[in-house]
Structure formats: C-alpha cells, structure tokens
Amino acid sequence: MYSDPALMKQKIKETVDRLDPDLRELSLRIHANPELSFQEIQAQQWLTEPLEAAGFQVEKGISGLDTSFRAVWEGQSGGPTIALLAEYDALPRIGHACGHNLIGTSAVGAALALKEACPELPGRIVVLGTPAEEEGGGKIIMVNDGVFNEMDAVMMCHPQQKTMVLRGALACVDATFTFHGKQAHAASSPEKGISALDALVNAYAGINSLRPYLKDDVRVNGIITKGGDAPNVVPELAEAVYIIRAKTVEELKVVMDKVYRVVRHAAEGVGATVDITEGLIYAERNNNKTLAGLFQQNLEDMGIEVHDPPQTGGVGSSDIGNVSQITAAIHPYIRLGDATTHTPEFARLAGAEEGMIELNRAAKALALTAFDLYADKAALKQVRDEFEAWKQQKDEG
User: Fold this and answer.
1) Is the dihedral of CA 337, 342, 345, 351 positive or negative?
2) How far is CA 180 from the centre of its chain?
3) pLDDT per residue over 170-183, tens digit each?
4) Which of 11, 126, 285, 363 could form a disulfide with 169 if both were Cys (CB 3.0 to 4.6 A apart)?
C-alpha cells in the first residue's frame, strides 16, 4: 500500500514535531495537577479532548471505571487493530514520580500523528485510557471485561533511567492485614486486653524470618499503617499493608501462602484475629520480542541507543503484564535522566525539559512501530505468530 515507507515514517516524525507544543502543554498540565488512582477525572478529560477534536470516537467510563476511556479511529478496512495505552494516575504526595503524564500524552500524540500523517492507514487505531496502574490495576479490570480481546497488538512507553525494550516485570499482589484485639487500660488492667499491635509486630518479624528461604527474585515489602490510638490503651486494631512479588503468578501464590500462614499464626499466638484483604494480582510481563525488535529499530533509526535489560533484579510490576497474557504487547522504556522512579527527583524530571524530550521520542517510536504493523503484513504475522506460539506453550503446561 505504501510505495515508500521511509517517506511515510519521516512524515510521521515531522507530524509529531508539529504537534510537540500542544503535547508539551498537555503533559505539563497533567503533571501540575496530579490525580491518584481511580480519581483521574481531569486527566481523562484533557487526554480525550484532542482525540475527539481529531475525529476519534471517544467512549468514557468503559469496564465500569469512571476515569477510563477508549478512543477509536477507523482507517481502511482489512488491517489490524493496534492499541496505544495511556496511563495518567499519580502517586500520593510525590505526584507524577513515575512519569505517567508522559505515558498518557505520548500515546495520544502517537495516535494523532498516525491519523494525520497516514489518512489511508489500513486498520483501527485505538487509544485506551487505563486508570489506576499504581494502585488498583485498571488494566486487569479491563482485561477481565474483554477490552483487549480484539487487539492485535498493544504498546505503551515508560520513562526510565535508561532506554530498554525488553525489560521484564514481576507478578505481584497487595495485601492488607487487619488485626483485631481487645482494648484495656495498659497500666491498671493489661491482662484484660489483647494487643492487635503485638500480633502485627510478631507477623512483621515472622515475615522477615522467611526471607532467607525465599527465591532471590521474591520481594515482600510492607508498612504499618495503624498501630493503635494511645500508648496507655492496649490496641484493639492494628493494620499493615504489604506488596508481595515473585517471578510468575504461580510462584507468587506459593509465597502468598507462606506469608499468610505467618500472619494467621501471629494473630492466633496472642489471641487476636486477622482479616486478610487482597488486591488484584498483577501478572508477570510477556514481552513480544518481535514487536520489541521493531520498536528498537525505530529508536536506533532516531539515533537513540538501546540497552540490554538487567539480568537480575531492577524490575517492578505493572498491570500490563495481564494484558500481555491476552495479546501481543510491549512496555519499552526511554531514558529520562539519572533519577529513579517513585522519587521527587523523577517527578521533577517528568515536568522538566528532559521529560518533554522523552515525550517527543516516545510518541515518535510508538507511532512508527504501529505504522510498521499497518504497512507490513509479514511483520504483523510474525508478531502474532510469536504470541500464539507462546500462548500454546503456556496452555500446554
């Protein structure tokens, strides 16, 4: 269909550059108004406005999530459906310290550039607004609702310390342990009380005692969110929140069982009780290597050096892992600066010139890689064949 793909790619890059002032303004507006998971009302509105103006059909509140959205542009028939994922939730107190203002805006920018530069594009461009990546797992809810079933490939791009296309991610779950005891005067009648805090502290120590016997890639991190109300009252309520991670969902469930047994025994040991509340399970990431290779080639064609992912450690978790179990997906990274994610320093970079440069590069790489799939049926087939082979192997055991 395209006699000169290189010429079309140059047109896409020029279009992103033309859109760059508007994309910067959008990203900085989201950065200056951080919203927590499931509360991203303004970001949803701001991200969908330019898509609606460009002719995308926008639907808000999909999968029962008030701050989600789906924006679709129908090109010529017979082509693939490619989804670009937008994240836009922030972190408590430190704002956009994971750079989601850049992620959401780069997805929108890539979609706008594709539609404008390639009006005869065969297939459908979909921008999916996926709220609550940091806490709540918006993509998991959307996966369970079938939103990704019709997608041939899914992409997003994350700012990081270095540029990588095949970095993995751990399976994880958050768990809240709420201990219930019995109040009493801590000085005059302590024997009448049951300390929920003692149960919690014993559980905390017990979980730490597991660490020498867990695999190197397992992570169990927790904080005490409530320890009582006054030092002269035996605490009747204490609470801790943990995040448990492992290489795969299967291995995660083994670790969860070990941690939960410790917690229950700690409560029983002092006569308390405990409630365990789980969040959604974030699956490990299945990077599509063929699709990642296309993304890497586009980065290198722009003069951006791509690094190998860490061999051990250095990874977190994301709900795109669940998406990658359903269809071909990638979650590459483009260098923002030397700061690490989830820090005030990273938040500053996400709203600085470094962030605007990363935004431009991410929008270009996403748009160019999507174009590869629309324009090259062989490349699309290779991406899909890799995913189907992986899925068959997984299903067989």
Assistant:
1) positive
2) 33
3) 999 999 999 999 99
4) 285
